[in-house]
């Protein structure tokens, strides 16, 4: 595989997948879902009324774009073009790569009050997000 595969990607699908992944994060880390448990797990107490810096949103958006590109490249390289194959690709990359990297990071991080809660919430986001990205980029041909 060479980097020429980038020219063959459906860049609109990649962008939509990245935005969907980013939007999932907004919901996932909101107080409606896992926001309160996540902030407790990392020991972070947001200051009431304080406006978060733009980097709090910009960095996750960039990582969602890079992840969507990587999954699109893998989908293209593996010929993933059905719903079942896309779900498998999302699960393999989400569980096999993202969740395992986060698990070892959380396991050796004594600074977090609840590192395994952090791992569960953060890994869950990446697994679900990677599946969504894989489905979008694989089926939008």
Provide an overview of this structure.
The chain is mainly alpha-helical. The protein has a domain at 60-141. Helix content is 71%, strand content 0%. The chain has five helices and no strands. Helix 1 runs antiparallel to helix 5 (115-139) and helix 3 packs across helix 5.
Shape: globular
Tell me the total number of β-strands: 0
How helical, in percent, are the residues?
over 70%
Please trace the helix and strand order, writing H or E for each element. HHHHH
Rounded to the nearest angstrom, the distance between the terminal CA atoms is 20 Å
Strand content: under 5%
Uncertain parts: none
Structure keywords:
mainly alpha, 5 helices
Helix and strand topology:
Blueprint: H1 11-28, H2 35-42, H3 55-78, H4 83-107, H5 115-139
Helix pairs in contact: 1-3, 1-5, 2-5, 3-5, 4-5
Give a quick summary of the entry:
The protein is mainly alpha-helical. The chain has five helices and no strands.
């Amino acid at each position: 595989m060479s980097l020429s595969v980038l020219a063959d990607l459906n860049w609109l699908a990649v962008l939509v997948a990245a935005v969907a992944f980013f939007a999932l994060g907004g919901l996932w880390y909101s107080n409606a879902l896992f926001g309160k448990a996540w902030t407790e797990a990392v020991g972070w107490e947001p200051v009431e009324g304080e406006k978060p810096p733009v980097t709090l949103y910009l960095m996750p958006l960039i990582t969602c774009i890079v992840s969507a590109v990587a999954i699109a490249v893998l989908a293209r390289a593996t010929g993933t073009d059905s719903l079942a194959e896309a779900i498998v690709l999302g699960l393999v990359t989400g569980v096999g790569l993202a969740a395992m990297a986060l698990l070892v990071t959380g396991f050796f991080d004594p600074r977090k009050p609840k590192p395994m809660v952090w791992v569960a919430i953060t890994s869950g986001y990446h697994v679900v997000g990677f599946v969504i990205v894989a489905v979008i980029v694989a089926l939008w041909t």
